[in-house]
Amino acid sequence: MHPQLPSHLAQGSATDRRLNSLLRHIDPSIASSSLSSMDSQISASPTSGFHGDSVFAHVVQAPEDSILGVTVAYNKDPSPIKLNLGVGAYRTEEGKPVVLNVVRRAEQLLVNDRSRVKEYLPIVGLADFNKLSAKLIFGADSPAIQENRVTTVQCLSGTGSLRVGAEFLGRHYHERTIYIPQPTWGNHPKIFNLGGLSVKYYRYYDPATWGLHFQGLLEDLGSAPSGAIVLLHACAHNPTGVDPTLEQWGQIRQLMRSKGLLPFFDSAYQANAQSVRMFVADGGECLVAQSYAKNMGLYGERVGALSIVCKNANVASRVESQLKLVIRPMFSNPPIHGASIVATILKDRNMYDEWTVELKAMADRIISMRHKLFEALCARGTPGDWSHIIKQIGMFTFTGLNSEQVAFMTKEYHIYMTSDGRISMAGLSSKTVPHLADAIHAAVTRVG
Q1: CA–CA distance, 412 with 340 (Å, rounded to integer)
Q2: What is the pLDDT of residues 255-266, one digit of tens each?
Q3: Which residues are catalytic?
Q4: Global pTM?
Q5: Helical segments of 195-309, H only
Q6: Among 339, 279, 273, 333, which residue's Cα sits nearest to residue 309?
Q7: What are the backbone angles phi and psi of residue 193, rounded to the nearest 5°?
Q8: Where would I find the H helices in 236-348?
Q9: DSSP letter, residue 10
Q10: Is pLDDT of 143 > 70?
């Protein structure tokens, strides 16, 4: 008997006899004593975990993610008045997650279709989904699509689309530097660094005006090396909610094209594709990462797409072949369910129209929360100009609160947000606006 092993693994047990038989079947040259030899090797292995410290004892506790960690802290708080404004996920007026009616309808159609199977998708994903995603972002009449200059691959939401694009650029693009806005979504620098790119920043937000630092943006991109990659938020910049005007987008495009800078759009909303289409219309090349998390509420389905607009169809075909080599060892092929939901909605005119109506209702509620919060702060006489709350767009408001004020609001009012003062307007309701306004007023007047 081996005292360090359970009795059912002892030599001579029925388990051993079966394993010996199997080994002899695989290779008759294996002696019956081989299992005993294997037993002794298993017992002596320094990684067996039976003796001493774990081989992972040196691993240190990692910090929580700066955004998702907010929810972790929120969940641990027993306070009945706690409020989570950290993660960008839409909530109803009652503070509940929502599944769009059109999504429920699409899912029911898919469930009722008995011909559907759960086979692997191709490496590039669901063909209908890719085709419809490209049409959604570029326009059905886009010359780039008509000329087959666009390659689109299904990825794991926006994050996965950015990562696949970063890996592709790290392997096949001559310039390994990407310029990202300051500030930007906290995951951006991590994604691009791990994708093999060197990250630098360009000025974007001006705290003094609560708006776009347009001159700084032009200066920084103007001094970037020729060929550098530039990350652009297609609309509703995260975390500031500050976007260039169409005229400013035109100037950005002219500058980037004149210097041969490569645009990489992150389109987390897709509510406004004008900026993307402006760059595609000039015949130049670009990358676009799309997500269906926020605009269809498919957060947990992880549905996204990466499109690369090329100079001609031949190049696009070769680019797609290399994207497959990026995807295959990363996640092999994407999941089928979420992409099928999106394709079902986008290819049916009635369902598409229903989606846009529900999308507008979500946007209108967020806009309403902006106005209610602004009015509440004005009513309290909170020091400062808070008009940026109603000028910014998208799911987030960049309040301008500093980390000390944020910490104060969490401790005293049980309000959770990222330390940079970004709040998710979609997490607010008419009932919770007064509580948030009280907290902001106290933070500004008492913490400074």
Answers
A1: 45
A2: 999 999 999 999
A3: 185, 266, 294
A4: 0.86
A5: 214-222, 246-259, 274-281, 293-296
A6: 279
A7: -65, -45
A8: 246-259, 274-281, 293-296, 313-331, 337-346
A9: S
A10: yes
- Peptide bond before residue 189 is cis, with ω within 30 degrees of 0: no
Length of the chain: 448
Cα–Cα distance measured from residue 136 to residue 429, given in angstroms and rounded to the nearest whole number: 31
Q: Does 206 score more than 70 pLDDT? A: yes
C-beta atoms surrounding 6 within 10 Å: 9
State how far the Cα of 387 lies from the Cα of 406, in Å rounded to an integer.
20
pLDDT band at 162 (very low <50, low <70, confident <90, very high): very high
Would you say 341 and 105 are in contact if contact means Cβ atoms under 8 Å apart?
Answer: no
What does DSSP assign to residue 92? -
Question: Mean per-residue pLDDT for 62-69?
Answer: 84
384-402 average pLDDT score: 92
User: Peptide bond preceding 28: is omega within 30 degrees of 0, i.e. cis?
Assistant: no
- Compute the average pLDDT of residues 103-130: 97
pLDDT digits (tens, 9 = 90+) for 327-368: 999 999 999 999 999 999 999 999 999 999 999 999 999 999
In the beta sheet, which residues pair with residue 305? 154, 290
Query: 3-state SS of the chain: helix, strand, coil percent to 5?
Result: 50, 15, 40
Is the CB of residue 267 less than 8 Å from the CB of residue 425? no
Beta-bridge partners for 203: 182
Q: Cα separation of 313 and 140, whole Å?
A: 17
Degrees, nearest 5: CA angle 233-372-241: 10
Residue carrying the six token digits 């972002």: 137
Amino acid letter, 343 = A
Query: Read out DSSP for 360-413?
Result: HHHHHHHHHHHHHHHHHHHHHT-SS--THHHH--SSEEE----HHHHHHHHHHH
Q: Which two tokens stand for residue 259?
A: 């210097």
Q: How far is CA 82 from the centre of its chain?
A: 26
Q: What pLDDT score was predicted for residue 2?
A: 46
Q: Which domains does the chain have, with CATH numbers?
A: 67-98+365-446 (3.90.1150.10), 119-347 (3.40.640.10)
In sequence order, what DSSP letters do the residues of 168-202 get, joined into one string? Answer: HHHHH-S--EEEEEES--TTHHHHHHHTT-EEEEE
395: how many CB neighbours lie within 10 A of its CB?
Answer: 24
- Say if CB 443 and CB 408 are below 8 A apart: yes
Distance of CA 311 to the CA centre of its chain: 28
AA identity, residue 75: N
Q: Are strands 211-212 and 205-206 parallel, antiparallel or unpaired?
A: antiparallel
> Do residues 225 and 176 make contact, with C-beta atoms less than 8 angstroms apart?
no
Res. 269 pLDDT band, cuts 50 70 90: confident
* pLDDT at residue 10 tops 50: no
